[in-house]
Structures are given as C-alpha cells and as structure tokens.
Amino acid sequence: MAAVHESAMTQVTASASAAPQVRSTGKKKTIGAVLKEVKVEFPDVTLSKIRFLESEGLLCPSRSSSGYRRYSQSDIDRLRYILTVQRDNYLPLKVIKEQLDEIDAGNAAGDGLASVTPLVTADQFREAAVVSLSRAELAERAGCAVDFVSELVRVGLLTPDTMDMFDGDDLLVAETAVKLSEFGLDARHLKTVRTAATREADLVALAASPMRKSRAASGQQKAVEMGREMTALLVTLHGTLVKRQVNNELGK
C-alpha cells in the first residue's frame, strides 16, 4: 500500500481528533511505543487491534532488518484516523479502507472523509407497500397472536384504517415488535418509541410546512422529498444516540 499523503492525513487527523499531535522527527517507533502514544486517547486499543488493522490492509508499517514493525508518524496519523472514525462515526473497516485508499491516491480532501454513513436513506421512506391485511391476517404474517396485534393498536404502534385493515408499514411494525418481545419488551415498553417517533415526525412536519403551503405547483412534492430526507437523518441521529447510550450503559 502506498504511504498516506502527508498533507491530507494531517488534515484528517487534525479534524478527527482534538488530541495533541506529535511532530514527526523522522525516527520510527515500535508497535509498543505506538500503543502507549495512542492509548491516551483510545484506551480500548490493544496490540492485537493494531496488528489486526495491518492484517486487513489498513496499516502498512515498515519492517526492520530483524522483522520488527516500525511506525512512521504518518503511520501513527493513519492509525489515529482509523480509530477516530470507528469510535465517532461507527464506520465499518471496509468503508474506512476505501477512504484511506482515496487519500493514498490523492483523490480525497482530508477534511471531507469523516462524514457519517447514514443508517438509512431517504429512498427507504417511500410509501408503504400496497398491502391490505385484516387483523387476523396481520397476526399470521407477523407470527403472533391476534391479541398481540390488538395490544399494539391500543398503545398506538399500529394504525388500522376505518375498515380495521393494516398496510405494509403496520406489518413491519408488528414483525419488529414480535422480535423485540423475544427480548422481554412488550407493547407497553414500546409506547416510549411511539412517543419519540411522534415528536420527531412533528419536527419534520414543522420544517416542511412552509414548502407544503407554497403556491408553486411543485411545492407539495418538494415538501414530501424534504420530509423523506429529514426522516432519514433523524432516524440516523436517533439510532446513533441510542447506540452510544447503550454502549455507555453496558460498558461497550
């Protein structure tokens, strides 16, 4: 692998980490010295982790005549970048490697690499699949009892139409609720999720309202597209915050 472009990686590490950066003296460091240096900012990192990143092609330190790894300052900057985007942006190693390859090729600006990969996209918030299910049919498709469906309706997670029929979104909600029930979360627990979703939907509606009320012929469609994009961003934000909080609660 080509060495990381010095100026690009300097920009990346400066924007990705607030920790003081050690100026390069030209002297290369052992893996133990590197671990000691980065462990201040990344206490969970281990020698095995650094070796694993090398085995996956994300790091490529030089070797001494006796076969020991030797890390330059650019190697350490590269390691800091990897650890930072893993911790802060939850990027998979495959994506990080692609970003680093772009830096190596001189095709990417350092300050633009640490962008968040959304958990969902706007395209996933198109209209629900054209499905019309009775309460009994929904229960059968979701793999639960009719009483469970009725409880989901009672707490507001399912919203049948005036004919007591359910659509594709209702089916997805029911299937997800069934899976969560296997972990001991029943409909009562999921009321908090519905409440949070309602509040977030209100934020989207508030932001899109001026465009929806526009007299322009395309105003309604633009409001719909804006709503989808905002929904995807809010779901990504919500999911990331939940993940972070769970990690904190469970000690990662």
UniProtKB/TrEMBL annotation:
Compositionally biased spans, kind Polar residues: 8-21
InterPro entries, alphabetized: DNA-bd_dom_put_sf (IPR009061), MerR-type_HTH_dom (IPR000551), MerR_fam (IPR047057)
One Pfam entry name: MerR_1
Molecular function in Gene Ontology: DNA binding; DNA-binding transcription factor activity
CDD domains referenced in this protein's UniProt entry, alphabetically: HTH_MerR-like
Region (Disordered): 1-21
Name the UniProt record assigns to this protein: MerR family transcriptional regulator
Source organism per UniProt: Corynebacterium lactis RW2-5
